[in-house]
Design brief:
Elements: no helix or strand
Length: 70
Amino acid sequence: LVIKAPPSPDYIPRPEAPISPDYIPGPEYPEYLPPADDVLPDEEQPLPAAVSPTVEWPGYITDSEPKMDP
């Protein structure tokens, strides 16, 4: 059981913070953003094997379905 002192007679209860309007994100600095056409390429392209660091890992298997020896 916690006993609290009564509030001051001059105390006026108010909300903790004012209600904020719904936030709609927008560009902060539009002069520094690229044009919308340059943001993403038309199609996603995988990295070439020579650029991918995964190929250099020891034990990396390049063929996901290896052929079985007869």
